[in-house]
Amino acid sequence: MSAIAVLVLAFALLLAIGVPVAFAIGVAAALAMLLAMPAEPALVTVAQRMATGLDSFTLLAIPLFVLAGELMSRGGIARRLIELAKALLGFLPGALAHVNVLASLLFGAISGSAVAAASAVGGIMAPRMREEGYDPGFGAAVNITAATTGLVIPPSNILIVYSLASGGVSIAALFLAGYLPGLLVGALLMLVASRPAARMGPRPAERPGARFVLSRLLRAAPSLGIPVLVIGGIAGGVFTATEAAAIAVAAAGLLAFAYGEVRPRDLPSILLEAATTTAVVLLLVATSVALSWILAYLRVPQAAGAALVSLGESPLAVLLAINAILLLVGTFMDMTPAVLIFTPIFLPVAEGLGIDPVHFGIIMILNLCIGLCTPPVGSVLFVGCGVARIGIGQVVRPLLPLFVAMLLALAIVTAVPELSLWLPGLFGH
């Protein structure tokens, strides 16, 4: 049996019996290497590739952004953003659905984590929506899909991972490129959710006065200032993504203590949670880098590239084929290993057809965001159902039209490169 067949079968079998993804990737990569080369260099190569995969200054930004997100989740930031969103959109029919989307978008843009957004915003919005007559499954579906916008709108850990996997695509360009696609997803989710939300919710409240909106904006302004500081500094070349992550930790910590939501005795549990999340992510990075190396050694990228090019010379046709593959991959593989494994396979093909690597990165992340909302490994799906205290069966039906909105956003971003490239071009990246 060929090394590639062993790799695929071993990985599928290990996932099927419930082995954690990072270990499944590592074991499958080791087995493939044992078939492709002598035993001793194979095992040494696995260890070396895992170690060198983590030897990156850029990757240091991930634990720092994770810690910043944890501080924001517990620091009262979500509640202030929800108050701002309600002041801005509370007069619309089905207001709480729109508030849920906007608050998730804002919180995700600050924390850079879809899971944190689903947990922090969903934990507050789920009981409020239930009290006002919204179907719990519908409220959870809105929260789950809206939370993923934080992975496209910067700062975003997964965009940093893509930069690493792509061989150094500018993080500043990727961060700037994520804004318009992320806002497009949020707008389409609001549009699709508006009709059922208006049918379920109470009569709209009166439009608040300018003074009330301004007061809520001032309360949320320090929180909203974090992404402005981080992205502004990176885009302006004042500091690197890693330095920006350290600044985000300092700012989030100061806000959390200033709001009185976090006390010194809370720090050990916050640091432990951040360390646990970081360990999971970096183990995925390490094993995925080893797997990417064995795929390159077996010339899988070249074979995949030839197969995709055989579809024709139309960049759009190739992107549609890649999107179809990634949509399938996203249903059973976590986003981090998917980016690390498939970027080296698909990006050379895309660049060969003249597709900008920044545009391709946004397409890839937007595509894999959909997988976070689907079983069997959809982490945001499970968190959203958990905070809403409902089963997955209750959320499947209301999720379907929101999936259509996300797919439509993906199609538009794929077909219109300017949505991703206009802002980076404007700032000279």
What can you tell me about this protein's structure?
This protein has 21 helices and no strands. Helix 18 runs antiparallel to helix 20 (392-415). The chain has 429 residues and is mainly α. The chain is globular and about 70 Å long. It folds into 2 domains: 1-55, no CATH class; 57-285 and 299-426, no CATH class.
Q: Helices, strands, pairings?
A:
Layout (H helix, E strand, L loop, with lengths): L2 H14 L4 H16 L2 H16 L6 H14 L2 H13 L5 H17 L2 H18 L4 H12 L9 H9 L5 H7 L1 H22 L9 H26 L5 H18 L8 H31 L2 H10 L5 H16 L4 H18 L4 H15 L7 H10 L3 H24 L2 H9 L3
Task: Summarize the structure in short.
The chain has 21 helices and no strands.
Average residue pLDDT: 86
The tally of domains stands at 2
Can you tell me the overall shape?
Answer: globular
How far is the first residue's CA from the last residue's CA? Answer: 47 Å
* Structural class by helix and strand composition: mainly alpha
* Counted beta strands: 0
Computed CA radius of gyration, to the nearest angstrom: 22 Å
* Low-pLDDT runs: none
Strand content: under 5%
SSE series: HHHHHHHHHHHHHHHHHHHHH
Characterize the largest beta sheet: strand count, sense, and whether it forms a barrel.
none
State the helicity in percent bands: over 70%
